[in-house]
Design a protein that fits this description.
15 strands; Rossmann fold; 2 domains; alpha/beta; two-stranded parallel ribbon; seven-stranded parallel sheet; single chain
Amino acid sequence: MPEQSLNIVTGAFGYTGRHIAARLLAKGARVRTITRRPGPAGSRIEAAPMSFDDPDALRRSLEGASTLYNTYWIRFEKGPVTFQAAVENTKILVKAAESAGVERIVHVSITNASADSPLPYFKGKGFVEQAIRDSRLSYAIIRPTLVFGSEDVLLNNIAWAIRRFPIFPIFGDGAYPVQPVFVGDVADIAVNAGAGSGNAVLDAVGPDEYSFEELARLVALFMGRRPKVLHVSPRIGFALTKLVGYAVRDVVLTRSEIDGLMAGLLVSRSEPAGATRLSEWLAENAKTLGRSYVSELRRNYRGGRYMK
């Protein structure tokens, strides 16, 4: 990577984007983010507005960049923030990158994304992948499984629930597989892909596979907790998550997320690309994991707008 080359990272003040930006900065690159989120004071990351309603302004924000790292997406629909809108916004971003002379895009998707999926999250991701393939940009599509790390939503909030409740409900038999991958490994995979030139679709996969029940029990073990595991139907489990959601003023899980989890969509048959084992990470981080609830609404939504 040429020293001080300009790289764009959407959502560099968010979660995955923050790790990608940190690795680029460590390599001596300039980093600019396109975001609706105010950056921290003194940040080395340049900031430009995420103006999907002004393609010319978006193009100007992208000018001079060699590579665009795209983490923009939504977890669930809320008001005018819909999956269809997110797809159209990403198409606007891709066209602006083409017009600005960006050479390569590294897009963070998800395993088993498909335009034919019955699940809106995976379906929308599939449409975005197709738009990137159809573009003039050189591309690498990174497809992570279940991403974990400090301040992640799913694993942290599993730990939060285990800390606070004597019973931990699991949807169905809990035997459906998950393959956690460390967020830092995802960032490394993305940055390495950005340095390439050929088109590629890469699954970002961790070294271990668990059943969902094994995952929950592993988290509890490292936290020194022994909650009673209660197997419930998806309908009852979803109702319970909604009750917790009312209490914490957040969307804890969507029904589509439960369906995707139980369908085994967060695994890959590819060779592991990430090296960090969840058990080793938990050994170092279990004491702080789940100390506070991580709210998707507080993190990414303000006044009905998505803030990434």
